[in-house]
Amino acid sequence: MKNTVIEATRIFPEEARLIATEKIKYYEKIKKPYLADIKTFLSKIKKIKNKFSQSFWEEALKVVLPKEYCHAVERLAYWRNMERFMTNKGFKKKIIDSEHDKAIAKTVSIQQLYPFQKLRKVGKRYQALCPLHGEKTSSFVIYPNNTFYCFGCHQGGDSIKFLQLINECSYIEALGQLSGGGYGRSH
Prior knowledge:
Layout: H1 3-11, H2 13-46, H3 51-64, H4 67-87, H5 91-107, H6 110-113, E1 120-122, E2 125-128, E3 140-142, E4 148-150, E5 156-157, H7 159-167, H8 171-179
Antiparallel strand pairs: 1-2, 2-3, 3-4, 4-5
Helix pairs in contact: 1-2, 2-3, 2-4, 5-8, 7-8
C-alpha cells in the first residue's frame, strides 16, 4: 500500500471505511454477471479425469476471462485487504509505529550498511564504487542528508531504498531490518 493511502486512511478513518465498502460493492457488481458462466466452466473442468487436460483448461480459462472481470477481482482483493487493515484494532498504532520506524530507519548511515570499496570523502559527500553495478570509477555518491545517488546506474534514495536494492527485499522488510520494527520475511 502506498504511504499516501495509509496516511489518508489514518486521517479520515470513517471516510476510508465508507469508500472501501462502496468500492467492494461496485466491483462485486461488475464481477457478478460473469460468475455463473465461470462456475459452470469450472465444474466441467473438475469432471475431467486427466490432470494435464484439467490444468490446461484451468489455464485456458485464465486467458479468456474478460478484462473487466479480471480487473474487478484484482481491485476487490485490494479493497478487501484495505477493509481488513482498517478494521484491525491495532490499525492506528501500526500506522504510528510505521512512521516512527521510518524516521528511525532513515537515520541509519548508508556508510554503515555496506562495506564500500574505495570510499573517500569529497567535501561533505562520500564517493565510492557502486555496489549495485560493476564499475571501475566511482560514480556512487552519499550526500550529507544520508541519501545516495549513482550516476552510473541512476539509482538513488535514502537508507531504506539502499537496503532494498542491496538485499533485494521489499520496502517493509528493509524498514524492519533498519528499525528493528519486527517486519520482514520471517513474519
